[in-house]
Structures are given as structure tokens and as C-alpha cells.
Input
Amino acid sequence: MLIEVCANSLKSALNAEKAGAHRIEICSELAVGGITPSYGLLKSVREKITIPIHVLIRPRSGDFSYSDGEFEIMKTDIKMCVDMGFEGIVSGVLQKDFTLDVERTKILVGASGDLRFTFHRAFDWVKSPLKAFAQLESLGVDCVLTSGQQKSAEDGITLLSELHHKASTITIMPGGGIKPENINVFKEKGFRAAHLSGSKFVKTLAIKPKIPMNSPSYLKDDGVTVSNLETIQKIVNAVK
Output
């Protein structure tokens, strides 16, 4: 059974490889479900990690329906990953009504060339998973990362098993709440791969900072934070 570790830093990737993981999905910001890592992080893991590396292509947190500008960024990032010699791309696009954006996903698969393509946990939002799964198979997607549309893969085992048995070309990779205590549940069901972060919080400062830099109010799935035109104009005009 292949174990893929979602690594959010060079240290996480190094630990995953040392622990015997078979593959890494490199990303940043696990707290928001992951976003595309920086060029610097990509360069570092490419130089220091020897096991296969798949790269998350997600330009921002929030939903999975992207503007034209965001979609161009995704294509540019995929080209960079192809040029850098990575082994896979992890991405996906939905329509605002929670159906699969077939055309845009097809474009991303094509842009990935010979790299393996995983459709990520945006799949857990689609309203018709069996239909979306058939569409992804027709697009040539290699793998679907999903919790079975539940908060954890263990809770979603029924849908996961149904997808696994229906799959002819796609690998169903359970992800979400995978841990040492339940990994054998998925192995015994015949899944060929599992996805996990295996992470824990590591305290880095002895003294808590005076003011927080995290902004929980920005963490929303049904919207994104955008610099407001009118607000900035008022401030600029105020100092003229």
C-alpha cells in the first residue's frame, strides 16, 4: 500500500522520506486545506527529496471555482512543475453549483503532460460523486483524493469502497483523518494508496507573542478575502 504524505515544509518532507513514506504531496498552509507552495520550497524539495513528489496547485484558500486570472496562474504553476521535473500534479476545479468543471479540469490534465494527475478533495464537495467520478475517468485522471464526502475517510468508507470497486483506471486514495489506529481499515478494504499529513503541532517560541498574526475570520469556504477597491481609494485620497 502506497503511503502519500502531505508535507507543508521542507522539514515535513524530510521527515516523511526518513519515515519511509512512498510519495510526498508538497503544499503550504495545511490550516486552509493547502495552497500552492513557493518556488523556493519547490526547489528545495526537488534538490533534497529522492522519493516521488506531487505538487498541489491551488492558488488560494476558499472555494474551488476560479477566476480567469487565477486559472492562468494555475496553468503557469503547472508548467513550472513540469519544467522542474516533478512526478505529479494535484489539483481540480468545480463549478459554483458544485458540479465538476470538466473543461477546466481537462485543460489542467493536458497541461500536466506526462505527470500523474490527482484530483484533490474538491471531489468531496461535488453533489453527484458517481457522475463526477465517471467524468474524471474519461479525462484520464490518475487518482482521486477523497474522504468519501465525510469529515474523515473512516466515516466515508462506504462511498470510498463503492468508488474503489467501480474504478477501472483511477486509483481511489482515502485521505482525511488517516492515522496509525485506522490505516489497516483501508488496507483490508483493498485500497492501494492512502494520504495523510501525520503532523503534530511543534511549539517554536518559549514566549507567546503579544499580538496574534493569525486571522480566523478570513478562513471561510464559501468566500475569499479580497482587497477592497473603495476602501483603498478612500485611504489613498485621504493622504493626498
In short: The chain has one domain: 2-204+213-239.
